[in-house]
Specification:
A hairpin with a 6-residue loop joins strand 3 and strand 4. This protein has a domain of about 160 residues. With about 325 residues, the chain is α+β, with helices and mostly antiparallel strands. The strands form two sheets. Strands 1, 2, 3, 4, 5, 6 and 7 form a seven-stranded antiparallel sheet that branches.
Length: about 325
């Protein structure tokens, strides 16, 4: 039975429009081209090839999709081409160098296709359209796509990018607090894959940072909130990555401290924790959205949030901590 999509406590963005969410899917055993064809069959649009392992599906009913093998070296980039031309420009004619780069990238992609994931990056859609993404997941699964649990080596994930309702410090802080308080519960509820726990992509927030933001007298300005976040989390590798949102809100502040070109500005939370459990009965993107809403609902309930923060800090001060994942359940909205 399909899980019913739940409604967030705040359904509109700052412009008064229905909030949108971007969905990113990782899986194996299905090529980028075949994935693009399935998107076209489901939602229409035009398949455009950029290289043998990168395709776009433009102008679908939902918007534009990217489908690619999730390995940067398999795709052309200005940075790679510029480096190659600086190193080899005097030795190889430009047209031959371009051809050599394309062949090398295609070879790397072919070599990697069996063990690196195919990634679909969906367009921002109204959150009410998430069930249509689940229909696409069904199409991919029937065509042979394999998810996280299909192999110990598959550290695949689903990433949700829910658009924020507000951009003030109070709103952002409450969601960070709520997430940190529910992290243990989320990990236990999702049953995070062992390989994904070992790899750095969904690292926890440092306990020192969690203790800082849960203090009752911690009431930073937005600038202070961003600076503190970057001081304790100068990385994209967090289960809830706030850097894209912070870059959207304050480009100069963030990029003066973060050098990674992979941080893309967008007005969303970047929630990276869920497994991509394509072959698991009953699993759905809708279910992961509903689980995320536990965070939003807690952030919206100020008194409950404050009570839970005090309990967390009290538990941390004990010589023998109680199981916080189990304790968390008493603050969850039914």
């Amino acid at each position: 039975m399909t899980e019913e999509l739940q409604t967030p406590p705040l359904v509109e963005n700052e412009s008064g429009q229905i909030r949108r969410v971007g969905v990113e899917l990782e899986f194996s055993s299905l090529s980028a081209l075949r994935s693009a064809e399935l998107i076209q069959t489901r939602f229409g649009g035009e398949v455009i090839s950029h290289d043998p392992h990168y395709f776009q599906v433009k102008n679908t009913e939902l918007g534009d999709f990217d489908c690619k093998l999730d390995v940067r070296y398999a795709h052309p980039s200005e940075e790679k081409e510029g480096t190659a031309k600086r190193l080899l420009g005097g030795l190889v004619k430009e047209e031959k160098l371009d051809d050599m780069l394309r062949r090398t990238e295609a070879f790397i992609g072919d070599l990697s296709e069996g063990w690196l994931p195919t990634e679909i990056v969906g367009p921002p859609i109204p959150y009410t359209w998430i069930p249509q993404i689940d229909e696409l997941v069904d199409d991919l699964t029937k065509a042979g796509a394999e998810g996280t649990e299909s192999s110990w080596a598959y550290a695949f994930g689903v990433q949700l990018n829910p658009e924020v309702s507000h951009s003030d410090s109070d709103y952002l802080l409450r969601h960070l607090q709520a997430y940190c308080l529910l992290s243990d519960w989320l990990r236990e509820s999702i049953n995070i894959d062992v390989t994904r726990r070992i790899l750095p992509f969904v690292d926890r927030f440092p306990l020192s940072y969690i203790k800082l933001i849960l203090q009752k007298d911690y009431q930073p300005s937005r600038e202070e909130l961003i600076d503190d976040y970057i001081e304790y989390n100068p990385t994209r590798n967090r289960e809830l990555d706030m850097l894209p949102l912070f870059r959207f809100l304050d480009e100069q502040r963030v990029m003066s401290q973060i050098t990674s070109s992979l941080v893309k500005a967008r007005p969303t939370f970047h929630y990276r924790l869920p497994n991509a459990s394509f072959n698991k009965p009953g699993w759905s993107v809708t279910g992961e959205w509903n689980r995320w809403l536990k965070v939003e609902k807690l952030a919206h309930a100020r008194d409950r949030l404050s009570e839970m923060a005090l309990a967390f800090l009290d538990n941390q001060n004990k010589l023998f901590h109680n199981n916080w994942a189990k304790m968390s359940a008493q603050w969850l909205e039914p």
